[in-house]
Write a structure and sequence with these properties.
Blueprint: H1 2-20, E1 21-26, E2 29-34, E3 37-42, E4 44-45, E5 66-69, E6 73-76, E7 89-91, E8 98-99, E9 112-114, E10 121-122, E11 135-137, E12 144-145, E13 158-161, E14 167-168, E15 181-184, E16 191-194, E17 197-200, E18 205-208, E19 217-219, E20 226-227, E21 240-243, E22 249-250, E23 263-266, E24 288-291, H2 296-300, E25 309-312, E26 315-321, E27 327-330, E28 333-335, E29 340-347, E30 351-358, E31 361-364, E32 369-372, E33 377-385, E34 398-400, E35 407-411, E36 413-414, E37 417-418, E38 424-430, E39 436-440, E40 448-452, E41 459-467, E42 471-478
Parallel strand pairs: 3-5, 4-6, 5-7, 6-8, 8-10, 9-11, 10-12, 12-14, 13-15, 18-20, 19-21, 20-22, 21-23, 23-24, 24-25, 26-33
Antiparallel strand pairs: 1-2, 2-3, 16-17, 17-18, 26-28, 27-29, 29-32, 30-31, 30-33, 34-35, 35-40, 36-37, 38-39, 38-41, 41-42
Amino acid sequence: MKQKILLLVAVILLSITGVFAQSGTTGPLTWSLNTGTLTISGEGAMPNYEGWGEAPWFDHRNYIYTLIIEPGVTRIGNYAFFACVNISSVTIPSSVTNIGDVAFYACNSLASITLPYGVTTIKSLAFHCCRGLVSIALPNSVITIEDYVFDGCESLPSITIPSSVTTIGNAIFKECVSLISIDVESENNHYSSENGILFNKDKSALICYPAKKTGDFYAIPSSVTNIALFAFAYCEGLTLITLPESVIDIDLQAFRDCKNLTWITNFNPVPITINETVFWGVNKYACILEVPIGSVDAYKSTAIWKDFKVLAEPHVVSVSVNNNEYGTVSGGGMYGLNTTATVKATAKSGYKFVNWTINGTEISTENPYSFTVTEDVELVANFEEKVGIEPIENDIVKIYPNPTNGQLTIDNGVAGQARNDVTIENAEIIDLMGKCIFQLSTFNSQLSTQIDISHLPTGTYFVRLQTDKGLITKKIVKK
C-alpha cells in the first residue's frame, strides 16, 4: 500500500513538473516556463506564428501568469500570446520594435502594460479583446498603429497618442465601450484631439468619438468631410447629433448601435450615398432627420435616409424689445416652414406699444401680430412712454355689478358696439393698502371683459384701468 502511495505522488510530481517546467527554442530564441513565469531569451526576432495554437507554449497558456521578455529580443511574433488568459504581468525590453498581429489577443487578466521606448509598430489586433486592460502607455517612438489594435478592450477608459505616431489604422477603438477620452500630444503632426475626440490633424476626418464620453448632444465641426469606420459606434449616450454640410462620405458602421439616437440635424441640402450599415442598431423609424428646407423630398426618396422621420429644418423667430424697462414680448421660438407664428407685446405701466420692426423697418402695428414663417426673422417690439397719464372721467367705462358676489364685468361698449375712442390696455384690482392683488391684460378694444374675484375676501377694493387716454379708477365692494 505504501509503495502505491509513493508511486501516485511521483506521478503527480511528474505531471506538475510537466506543466510548470517546460522549455524549448523558437526561431533564434529560447523559452522556459517555470512556476507560472514564461521567460523568452536570446538575440533576434520571435517568429510570426501562422495562427492560434502555433506558439510552442500554447498548450500551457492557462498556466502562464507572468511574461518576461529579456533584452535582445527584437520582435513579438504574430499570435505569440494568443488567449493566454491568465497573464497579468508583462515585461518588454527596449530592444523590441515590433508587436505582431493578434499578439496579446484575449489576454483578459492583463490590466496594465507599458510599452518601452523603441517600439515603432503595433500590428493589427495586437491587444484585441484584452477585456481587463485599464491602462496602456505608448512610448514616443510608436509610428504605426494598425487596424483594430484595441478592439474589444472594454475596460479601457482613456489613452494618449504620442507625437511620434504618423499612421492610425481603421477602428482601433472599436467596442472600447468604457472609453471616455482620447488625447493626442500637441506636437503630433498627423493627428489631433478636441475634447477627447480623435481627429486627423486638420480635423477633416473624425476618427473616433469615445463610446462612453459624457453628454447627449454633439455638433460635428464644419471642418469634417469624412466620418471614419465605427467612428461613433456604441455611443449609447448620444441622443442628438448634427452633420455639417461639409461631410461628403460616411464610412461603414459609423453610427452602429447608437441606440438612443433620436434626432439628427443634417445641413447638407443634397443627401449623400451611405451604406446600409452606417446606422445599424439605430431605430431609424423613430429618429427625426432634420434637413434643409427644400430637401425633404430628396431625403424621402434616397435609400437609408428615407427610413428616418424626415422633417424640414425649422426657422427661428427671435423676439426682443427696444427697452426691457418698457415692456415684455412673447411668441418667439422654432417654427416650421409656412406655419403661423403669433407674437405679442405687453406694455408695462406708463408705457404703450408702438410697432414691430425688423432691422429698424416697421413691419406691423398689430398686437398680437400673426404671420407666416418663411425664413428666420428677428422682430423687435417697440414701446414708448405715455405722455400725460392722468385720471379721466370714470363713467367712460362701466364696471358692474357693484357690489358684486364675485363676477365683475368691465364694459367698454357704446350702444352695444365696441368703442374706438378708448382702448383698455390692462386692469388691476387694488386693495385699500394700495397693493395690486390681481392683474388682467387681455383687453385692447374688446366690448366687455369678465373678471372673477370670488376668491377675494369680503371688503372694499379699487379697479384701476390703464387706457390709451389715461387712468380710470373705480371703487367696488366685494360682498
